[in-house]
Amino acid sequence: MSNVLIGIIGVILFIGLALAGALFLGPRFQEATLNSKASAMMGAIGQASHAANLYRLQTGNDVPGNAVGDAPVVAALVNGGYLKAVPVTNEYGVGYRADDGAVAPTRPTLTVNGIADTPEGRKLCSVIARQSGMTLDADGNAPSTDTPTGVGGCFRIKSAWGSLPVGFMIAYQRI
Predict the structure, then answer these.
(1) Residue 94 belongs to what H/E stretch?
(2) For residue 98, what pLDDT is reported?
(3) Which single residue of 26, 56, 92, 168 has CA 20 to 30 Å from 65?
(4) Which of 147, 148, 145, 164 is nearest to 156 (CA)?
């Protein structure tokens, strides 16, 4: 009888410790998930950026294409053997845009990836910005600007950027 009682107390103690651990470590696990998503997104963008550089070095031309998320840009990199497959990081995909925000059909200078304007998207953009060494806004969000700085990062569009609306978030890496 005492063995059963000790077993029940052990199970209750185990369940209590598991719940306490989950409550204590829960935010850490969520933060780790965002960090891994941010790293995966920047890795995919970096692959496309390196592929575009290799294309430029070997052909002497910039990657053809003329719009953010433009299929010919990615198709040229995949069909030319510079990318094994299209890097998929979210629903917006990888594309190219000039530094001034104008669509650049002849000389792309950024690899960009749109991030959905959701609470998780804002957190993801802020994590990417923080990982890239960018200064966050006072509200803790990614900077709001129209001129991205540095080698890579994430920002919220301050004013209309071509067809992209204000507040749309862009993760980028320079080519």
Answers:
(1) strand 94-97
(2) 44
(3) 168
(4) 145
